[in-house]
Amino acid sequence: MDRDPAAVRDTYDRIAGHFAKTREYPWPEVESFLDDAPAGGVALDLGCGNGRHAELLAEQADRVVGADVSRGLLETARDRAAERGFPVDLLQCDAAAVPLADDAVAVAVYVATLHHLPDRAARIASLDELARVLAADGVALVSAWSTAHDRFDADEGFDTTVDWTLPDGETVPRFYHVYSPAEFEADLRDSDLTVREAFVSSGNCYAAVEPAPAGD
Fold first, then answer.
1. Residue 74's CB: how many other CB atoms inside 10 A?
2. What is the pTM of this model?
3. How far is CA 86 from the centre of its chain?
4. Can you list the domains of the chain with their CATH numbers?
5. pLDDT along the chain (216 residues), means of 10
6. What is the pLDDT, as a whole number, of residue 28?
7. Residue 68 to residues 28, 95, 110, 180, Cα–Cα distance (Å)
């Protein structure tokens, strides 16, 4: 099981075009979250993939930043933005090293990405980075695959690989850490974020979060 971050990047570079074609629509959970999120300011789509959620953010933010470790996926986001006419600044970076200033982001979505990071330390470091870039009154939605998904039969979190099948039939393994809901909430508690609401939907763990107050 190859959990090296460079391997994850290379995997998504390899499958980017086909992957992006299967990710046309935003998740309803993201749409619901943004319905209640403040408008204006800077919005961040961390792990932006093909930019489907950055497109939503562009409807209500003054500036949108889409960040992803995969250059291939960023290219699909660039193409989507050009075709659909929405503004987004694209950055290639690791989820634990986002080149944005402290307190710069009003709203963020960090979906379907945390579970690709190689170990607990890296996952919490990325949550801490999200907290760092969020403004004091900023909000974010975080998601990860859950043991509640129909394809799994487990009560505790575990590491696994999930194959992506390309059009020619070739399979490409992708590293996942599949969270139990309790473990997901525990990692959030141990980060610099405060959980507003946590829930499970469509086989994923979700949490609406904000930066923990200074000194906590």
1. 24
2. 0.95
3. 20
4. 5-24+40-211 (3.40.50.150)
5. 71 92 94 96 98 98 98 97 98 96 98 96 98 98 95 93 94 96 98 98 97 80
6. 97
7. 21, 7, 10, 25
Q: Are 208 and 196 in contact (CB under 8 A)?
A: yes
Alpha carbons 130 and 155: distance in angstroms, whole number: 27
Residue-level pLDDT at 3: 59
Spatial CA neighbour of 42 closest among 132, 138, 143: 138
Q: Tokens 């850490």 map to which residue? A: 177
> Looking at residue 215, what is its pLDDT?
62
Q: What's the 3-state SS for the chain?
A: CCCCHHHHHHHHHHHHHHHHHCCCCCCHHHHHHHHCCCCCCEEEEECCCCCHHHHHHCCCCCEEEEEECCHHHHHHHHHHHHHHCCCCEEEECCCCCCCCCCCCEEEEEECCCHHHCCCHHHHHHHHHHHHHHEEEEEEEEEEEEECCCCCCCCCCCEEEEEEEECCCCCEEEEEEEEECHHHHHHHHHCCCEEEEEEEEECCEEEEEEEECCCCC
What's the token pair of residue 183? 């473990």
